């Protein structure tokens, strides 16, 4: 699969990307059994096969849903650059992580509605970028990640990467100048998936990484426990969009759980505990950069 990953990255202007840097689970669905090994040593492609990917995101190629941009090849190629993504722990854990990743990102890019064909949770990965963004999402306090003139850092890609400091950090990791060319995220599907996986795998204290939460590596502090932040899918929602948490029931949180539930069923794994963040205190925003005004 490395050959495939490199082939997808040999595109004009993308040469810099070559710098690399529980209870028993239920039986897998028929799709999960098709071509899947009983462990994750074969990589993400041994867990999520092409037929399964198409079933999970079955409407992304509809005329009303321009998400055909997101291809299986791009997903697998991006996963190759993140050791441990979707391959950590027992098979049930690996499947759960992939279900959680696709659940969160499907909600971020959703195009379904109540009564939609095949149900609203079959309509993930419809959109590539934020529609009618209210601002350019430039925080000038982050002098290490200066905003380029005329550029907007609104949501793009599976995780809807937002803000100049996130584009800057992701670009540093990938070896691509996303601050000066943020539109790369909507032009190249492999890069788009890479930015989402970068966010997923990277901790931003005091927030743990989504990867560490879903694989059981994160141990909540006493402050986390007091704030109701316990290991589970709900904390991941708090990491991705803290504004949905801490004020009781929120339909957006329920939507994320709905996608996650569907993908867990397809992958043949359980959802775990602590699925929502209705009563979790949000993580503190001011810690997004420990020293936002100090040059590196």
UniProtKB/TrEMBL annotation:
<dbReference type="InterPro" id="IPR023346">
    <property type="entry name" value="Lysozyme-like_dom_sf"/>
</dbReference>
<keyword id="KW-1015">Disulfide bond</keyword>
<dbReference type="GO" id="GO:0008843">
    <property type="term" value="F:endochitinase activity"/>
</dbReference>
<dbReference type="GO" id="GO:0050832">
    <property type="term" value="P:defense response to fungus"/>
</dbReference>
<feature type="disulfide bond">
    <location>
        <begin position="245"/>
        <end position="277"/>
    </location>
</feature>
<feature type="active site" description="Proton donor">
    <location>
        <position position="108"/>
    </location>
</feature>
<keyword id="KW-0378">Hydrolase</keyword>
<keyword id="KW-0732">Signal</keyword>
<feature type="disulfide bond">
    <location>
        <begin position="138"/>
        <end position="147"/>
    </location>
</feature>
<dbReference type="GO" id="GO:0006032">
    <property type="term" value="P:chitin catabolic process"/>
</dbReference>
<keyword id="KW-0624">Polysaccharide degradation</keyword>
<feature type="disulfide bond">
    <location>
        <begin position="65"/>
        <end position="126"/>
    </location>
</feature>
<keyword id="KW-0326">Glycosidase</keyword>
<protein>
    <recommendedName>
        <fullName>chitinase</fullName>
        <ecNumber>3.2.1.14</ecNumber>
    </recommendedName>
</protein>
<dbReference type="GO" id="GO:0000272">
    <property type="term" value="P:polysaccharide catabolic process"/>
</dbReference>
<keyword id="KW-0119">Carbohydrate metabolism</keyword>
<feature type="signal peptide">
    <location>
        <begin position="1"/>
        <end position="20"/>
    </location>
</feature>
<dbReference type="GO" id="GO:0016998">
    <property type="term" value="P:cell wall macromolecule catabolic process"/>
</dbReference>
<feature type="domain" description="Glycoside hydrolase family 19 catalytic">
    <location>
        <begin position="191"/>
        <end position="201"/>
    </location>
</feature>
<dbReference type="InterPro" id="IPR000726">
    <property type="entry name" value="Glyco_hydro_19_cat"/>
</dbReference>
<dbReference type="InterPro" id="IPR016283">
    <property type="entry name" value="Glyco_hydro_19"/>
</dbReference>
<dbReference type="Pfam" id="PF00182">
    <property type="entry name" value="Glyco_hydro_19"/>
</dbReference>
């Amino acid at each position: 699969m490395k050959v495939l990953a490199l082939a997808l990255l040999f595109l004009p202007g993308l040469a810099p990307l070559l710098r690399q840097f529980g209870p028993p689970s239920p039986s897998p669905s028929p799709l999960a059994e098709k071509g899947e090994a009983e462990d994750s040593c074969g990589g993400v492609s041994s867990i999520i096969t092409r037929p399964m990917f198409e079933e999970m995101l079955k409407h992304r190629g509809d005329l009303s849903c321009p998400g055909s941009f997101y291809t299986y090849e791009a997903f697998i190629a991006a996963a190759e650059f993140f050791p441990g993504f979707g391959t950590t722990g027992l098979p049930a854990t690996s499947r759960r992580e992939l279900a959680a990743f696709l659940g969160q990102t499907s909600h971020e890019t959703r195009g379904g509605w109540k009564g939609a064909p095949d149900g609203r949770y079959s309509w993930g990965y419809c959109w590539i970028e934020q529609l009618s963004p209210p601002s350019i999402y430039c925080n000038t306090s982050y002098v290490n990640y200066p905003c380029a003139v005329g550029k907007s850092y609104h949501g793009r890609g599976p995780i809807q990467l937002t803000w100049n400091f996130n584009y800057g950090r992701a670009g540093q990791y990938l070896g691509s100048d996303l601050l000066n060319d943020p539109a790369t995220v909507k032009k190249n599907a492999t890069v788009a998936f890479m930015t989402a996986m970068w966010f997923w795998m990277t901790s931003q204290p005091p927030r743990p990484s989504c990867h560490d939460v879903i694989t059981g590596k994160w141990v909540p502090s006493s402050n986390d426990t007091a704030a109701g932040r316990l290991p589970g899918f709900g904390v991941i929602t708090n990491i991705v969009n803290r504004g949905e948490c801490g004020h009781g029931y929120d339909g957006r949180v329920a939507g994320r759980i709905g996608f996650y539930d569907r993908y867990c069923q397809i992958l043949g794994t359980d959802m775990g505990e602590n699925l929502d963040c209705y009563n979790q205190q949000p993580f503190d925003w001011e810690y997004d950069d420990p020293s936002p005004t100090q040059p590196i």
